[in-house]
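User: Could you go from structure to sequence for me? I need the amino acid at each position, not a summary. Structure tokens:
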């Protein structure tokens, strides 16, 4: 009589599967195991130091900086809570903050549906975002019409000013960048040379120079009785600067389109602008979505440079509060304020990055056929 000695088989548990993958990824060889352990120890050290500063030794209550002047104190969070309105809105009148909140709500009502699958009438929503919302936002924030009190732009500040500059810069530089990219590939020599000269000139100077010229030098060339709002000058400078970089990104996408696509559009009898609008540009922009979003993120972070022309965005307001308000002077005030500003910038940049990744997945950017 033969006795079966086969062992009963069992499926691996999720923990065993996860553990096997972890060992294969982090500890496949002795050298890689040592490197992984060193990096893990470094990450743990940095994480503990941050938690100790931000939570364990942090100060959470207080009416001035004296609460944070205790020896060994960590983050000074009362500084953030007491200055929150200033960081978010600048010196915008408190009684009119409902206009800022309504503007944010109108923006979300247009932007969110564009990224939600299955939402109908997206072309109409896009037209609202690009054409209707900017007018509504300008009326709400500035006032002076429809019974709304006028709020001067020099009262705008903090995160509000950062979002205004970034939003207007992105919305204005994108179409300008596309036009510059098409002009640089134009068969008309004068148009091509002019576009190339503009792009190379702008890309050869820092944004600080452009803002300085727009704020300080431009008024010198205007008649004495003509004045242009400082914020408007900054918006124009940022948009024109960013457009030059976007033009090169879009031009890279145009060059990646196979020649057969141009010939197919010509065979259909499409004119130049219809060919570009319906055949070439949709494919080119789809290919360079990562580069476009990267330019948008860089633009969003570069808004902090408007501080040099006297506009106080989020970082400018934080710096002014740290340096000018002696009431909140403490060893940890500056670090806490700058950490708060960095966290806000990271949240917005990360959100833009995730939205870009979702759009790339939906359009299958980089997928192999």
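Assistant: Here is the amino acid at each position, in order:
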């Amino acid at each position: 009589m033969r006795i079966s000695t086969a062992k009963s088989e069992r499926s691996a548990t999720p923990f065993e599967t996860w553990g096997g993958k972890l060992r294969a990824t982090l500890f496949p060889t002795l050298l890689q195991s040592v490197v992984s352990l060193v990096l893990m120890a470094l990450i743990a050290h940095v994480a503990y130091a941050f938690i100790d500063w931000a939570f364990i030794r942090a100060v959470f209550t207080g009416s001035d900086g004296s609460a944070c002047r205790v020896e060994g104190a960590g983050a000074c969070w009362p500084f953030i809570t007491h200055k929150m309105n200033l960081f978010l809105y600048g010196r915008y009148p408190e009684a009119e903050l409902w206009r800022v909140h309504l503007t944010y709500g109108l923006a979300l009502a247009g932007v969110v549906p564009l990224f939600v699958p299955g939402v109908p009438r997206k072309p109409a929503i896009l037209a609202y975002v690009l054409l209707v919302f900017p007018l509504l936002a300008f009326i709400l924030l500035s006032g002076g019409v429809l019974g709304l009190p006028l709020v001067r732009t020099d009262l705008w500040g903090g995160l509000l000013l950062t979002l205004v500059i970034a939003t207007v810069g992105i919305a204005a530089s994108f179409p300008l960048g596309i036009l510059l990219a098409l002009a640089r590939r134009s068969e008309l020599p004068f148009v091509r040379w002019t576009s190339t000269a503009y792009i190379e000139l702008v890309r050869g100077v820092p944004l600080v120079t452009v803002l300085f010229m727009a704020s300080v030098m431009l008024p010198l060339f205007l008649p004495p009785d003509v004045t242009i709002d400082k914020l408007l000058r900054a918006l124009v400078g940022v948009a024109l600067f960013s457009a030059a970089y976007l033009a090169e990104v879009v031009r890279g996408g145009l060059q990646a389109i196979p020649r057969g696509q141009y010939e197919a559009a010509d065979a259909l009898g499409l004119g130049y602008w219809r060919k570009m609008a319906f055949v070439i540009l949709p494919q080119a922009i789809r290919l360079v979505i990562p580069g476009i979003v990267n330019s948008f993120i860089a633009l969003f972070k570069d808004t902090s440079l408007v501080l040099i022309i006297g506009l106080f965005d989020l970082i400018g307001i934080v710096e002014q509060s740290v340096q000018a308000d002696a009431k909140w002077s403490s060893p940890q005030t500056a670090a806490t304020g700058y950490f708060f500003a960095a966290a806000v910038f990271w949240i917005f940049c990360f959100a833009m990055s995730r939205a870009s990744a979702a759009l790339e997945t939906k359009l299958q950017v980089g997928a192999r056929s």
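One structural detail worth keeping in mind: The mean pLDDT is 89.
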